[in-house]
């Protein structure tokens, strides 16, 4: 479990560092892997096929977390269900920053934020409440204008999208994105 927590922390730090270097905020897509090439992955989503660039460069390496462990691109298999956090690259290319088989997403309204801003409760569109651990860093917080924000910017009644993973029975927020 400690290795999983370390992998999640590495995943989040990588995403935060990538975000700091990019002018485009990260986006997310989920689906099944259709095909793999040397530095490219095609994902079949509900919106059709999308192609993503994979990077092996030291400063912008695509982080792959499968089964809670950091993995190599060779561990990815066709028809595997995954979630990709990505940024728009030059032209119409999409650069994969994070690939995970365990990430989930919730959209809803913030019900409460703990006084120490380390826990956020979100009520989803079905009126179900979800609690998320906020670890700053590495949780990435994104304002509705696409810029990075701070935990103190989280307020009750804000519409948000939360991308999270489970760790030790708790939901750990990878990204909390304020919605307009």
Topology record:
Layout: H1 2-21, E1 27-37, E2 40-45, E3 48-53, E4 63-66, E5 69-71, E6 81-88, E7 94-100, E8 104-113, E9 119-124, E10 129-133, E11 140-142, E12 159-167, E13 170-178
Parallel strand pairs: 4-7, 11-13
Antiparallel strand pairs: 1-2, 1-6, 2-3, 4-5, 6-7, 8-9, 8-12, 9-10, 12-13
Describe this structure in words.
The protein is 11% helix and 48% strand. It is mostly beta strands and 180 residues long. The chain has 2 domains: 2-100, Nucleic acid-binding proteins (OB fold (Dihydrolipoamide Acetyltransferase, E2P)); 104-178, Copper binding periplasmic protein CusF (OB fold (Dihydrolipoamide Acetyltransferase, E2P), Beta Barrel), CATH 2.40.50. Strands 3-2-1-6-7-4-5 form a 7-stranded mixed beta sheet, with helices on one face. A hairpin with a 2-residue loop joins strand 4 and strand 5.
Distinct helical segment count: 1
Question: Mean pLDDT score, rounded?
Answer: 79
Helix content: 10-25%
Domain count: 2
Radius of gyration computed on alpha carbons: 16 Å
CATH class of the largest domain: Mainly Beta
Q: Helix/strand/pairing class, anyone?
A: mainly beta
Report the CATH superfamily of the largest domain: Nucleic acid-binding proteins
> How are the strands of the biggest sheet laid out side by side?
3-2-1-6-7-4-5
Number of strands: 13
Inertia-based shape: globular
Give the CATH architecture of the largest domain. Answer: Beta Barrel
Major beta sheet summary: 7 strands, mixed
* Low-pLDDT segments: 1-23
And the CATH topology of the largest domain? OB fold (Dihydrolipoamide Acetyltransferase, E2P)
In whole angstroms, the N-to-C terminal distance is 36 Å
Secondary-structure element order, N to C: HEEEEEEEEEEEEE
| Percent strand | over 45%
